[in-house]
Amino acid sequence: MAKDYRLDQIVSLVDERGYLSVIELSELLDVSEMTIRRDLARLEEEKRLHRTYGGAASRRGEPIPTEVTPADKSAVTQVDQVDVLIATPVNPYYDRLLLDRVSKKAIPVIAESVSIPGQSTLVAVDNYQASLDLGRWAGRYLSQHGFETAFLLDLSFHLSNTQTRSRGFLDGVHETCPDVELVLSIDAQSRAATAYQIARDALTVHPQINLIFAINDSTALGAIRACRDLNIPPQKMVVVTFGLEGDTLKNALMEIQYCKAGLAMFPEIVAQGCIDAAVAAYNHQPLPHEYVTPYVVLTSQTLPDYYTQTSSGWQLNWEAIHQEFRLPPRLETQPRSRVDHGARLPATVGLVVPFSEHEWYKELTRFLQENAAQYGFRLEIIDADQNIRDEIETRRRAIAAKAASLVNSGDVVIVDGGPIAEYLAEELKKKSNLTVITNSMVVLNTLNPAPGIVLISTGGALRYSSQVLVGPTAESTLKELRADKLFLMVGGITFDFGLSHTNISEVTIKQAMIRSSHEVILLADHTSFSTESIIQVAPLSVVDKLITDDALQPKIRLEISKLGIQLLLA
After folding, report:
1. Parallel/antiparallel/unpaired status of strands 313-316 and 348-353
2. Looking at residue 93, what is its pLDDT?
3. Per-residue pLDDT at 555
4. Residue 379, SS3?
5. Strands 535-538 and 498-501
6. Which architecture does CATH list for 127-264?
7. Going by C-beta distance under 8 Å and a sequence separation of 6 or more, which residues neighbour residue 305?
8. Cα–Cα distance between 388 and 525 in angstroms, integer?
9. pLDDT single digits (tens) 270-313
């Protein structure tokens, strides 16, 4: 089951029942209790539920919280409204949609931290060498301070650059402290709350852990909090972070408590590289395959050599940087002089922010804005999650419009409840001489004032979380009715398990709808595919037509066509 879909199901189940324990959620979703605990930590952080001792409680009925956005965010801009895009890939699914959008507009992409297909260049530190040096430092520190064996907890992440950091760090520790044991390596989802829970659980189960490597400051902060809450003596724990992104971990380093060292990546320099690359790409100038930016391992003793603490925070000592490092030639000069004679400047450069909680993106945003102002163009912050939501909604509307085009005057149709149902109802309002049978309150409310449409409700018990009518009454109604077409929606679609959904009461009414229809038309955007939900609705062979979007992989589309299902792309 895809993680984002699982998170939605957790919220739905908790909203429906009011409270569920970790054990109950683990059994319902067929995942480990550790996974559920990590999911609950994230959902509480996102204010989608209340995490309690041993489980979670619903926030249903509470006001929806305002989303926390990056500092100085002026607007959420659509990706296709910028001249150049600076982006960090995080989720392959998200990235595919974003890249599809920019490629259609021929917008140059500057990759930050991780390579992106079709990028103009990559601005990044040498992750392996940097983490290798940090690991060497950690191994020496342990040996010098009487630690006979290093017991390592690796708080990693799924991206290639962060996996490289974890591998390089372990290799570095091995070089200088050969007696090292990797106790656990766990994806902490790059979030402080998740890292806290994982670190706390790991330290409770494996109290011998004395070294924690965090692939960024957010995970390091979660680990430090776990150490503090468990009252682990600072002299018995070494936490090292890859980043030193903002003031929080620099301050933690200077406290000389759990955080003993950090790999400084210098967002100030990375911002320069990204802006310079953006201007060059906009002018179709040749760029290196990669801008390799500098790094240095810092401790409480060496941090003041590179940063000065002021009333407004830690400020980079540029004189020390230029003495210590050889920056790429184009970054050694002032911004205006880096622009070739006759070069054009983009009006707007977009920055995709995948994690608004990270100090790295807050700092990178600040320095990018400063550099953009020196050039005289605008930097727009793009909320990745919001753009993806907008993209999916656009695709769902297109699917609904395509579905409505199949409805003829005089048809009797069943409209199932689901994410596309409201859009389909809006399209059907434009038609006349039509009978619509539905168990969806959203569809009923949308079509209720529509003239020329006979509206039939299945009746039944209302499920609050999905706003659909279910139960024996609804199923009995469907036994007495026949429809020309069924527009069906499900939670998951695979070739092995077929059509699947989460709640048994919704599954049984979907099955009743299938039995009452001459033609089954499945409406599903590409996010529903290759995902198995808990309960099977029916084999894929019951579907006569499938309407989906063009982001569905060609291989899957071909296999569907081989089954004799008519495939329509919206």
Report:
1. unpaired
2. 57
3. 87
4. strand
5. antiparallel
6. 3-Layer(aba) Sandwich (3.40)
7. 317, 320
8. 13
9. 999 999 999 999 999 999 999 899 999 999 999 999 999 999 89
* Model confidence pLDDT, tens digit, residues 2-12: 677 688 788 87
**124, exposed or middle or buried, with CB in 10 Å at 0-12, 13-18, 19+?**
buried
Q: Where are the domains of the chain?
A: 3-58, 79-125+267-293+329-384, 127-264, 405-569
- The whole-number pLDDT of residue 283 equals 92
Look at residue 274 in the predicted model and tell me its pLDDT. Answer: 94
512, pLDDT greater than 80: yes
The number of beta carbons lying within 10 Å of the beta carbon of residue 464 is 13
Over residues 57-73, the mean pLDDT reads 44
Show the tokens assigned to 539.
């084999």
Report the percentage of the chain scoring pLDDT > 70. Answer: 89
Q: What contacts 509, CB < 8 A, 6 or more positions away?
A: 439, 458, 460, 468, 469, 470, 471, 474, 475, 478
d(CA 372, CA 375): 5
> What's the pLDDT at 328?
64
Distances (CA, A) of 86 to 31, 82, 281, 373, 501: 36, 10, 11, 16, 38
Q: Over the stretch 76-119, which tens digit does the pLDDT of each residue have?
A: 346 678 999 999 876 665 677 677 778 888 899 999 998 888 89
**When comparing pLDDT for 99 and 132, which is higher?**
132
**79-125+267-293+329-384 has CATH 3.40.50 classification:** yes
The reply to whether domains 79-125+267-293+329-384 and 127-264 share a CATH topology is: yes
Average pLDDT over residues 491-503: 90
Alpha-carbon span 413 to 108, nearest angstrom: 46
Distances (CA, A) of 562 to 294, 411, 529, 555, 558: 53, 29, 16, 11, 6
Q: 259-264 and 296-298: which strand pairing?
A: antiparallel
Q: Is 536 helix (H, G, I), strand (E, B) or coil?
A: strand
Q: How many CB atoms lie within 10 A of CB 245?
A: 25
Residues 419-433: tens digit of each pLDDT: 899 999 999 999 999
Cβ-Cβ contacts under 8 Å for 500 (sequence gap 6 or more): 490, 491, 492, 493, 494, 532, 533, 534, 535, 536, 537
- CATH architecture assignment, domain 3-58: Orthogonal Bundle (1.10)
Site of tokens 């004189």? 319
Side chain identity at residue 219, one-letter code: T
pLDDT at residue 61 tops 50 = no
Q: How far is CA 530 from the centre of its chain?
A: 18
Give the mean pLDDT of 313-335. 78
Distance CA 272, CA 435 (A): 61
Is the Cβ–Cβ distance between 162 and 219 less than 8 Å?
no
Residue with tokens 């319902």: 28
The class level of CATH for 405-569 reads alpha beta
Handedness of CA 565, 413, 501, 490 (dihedral sign): positive
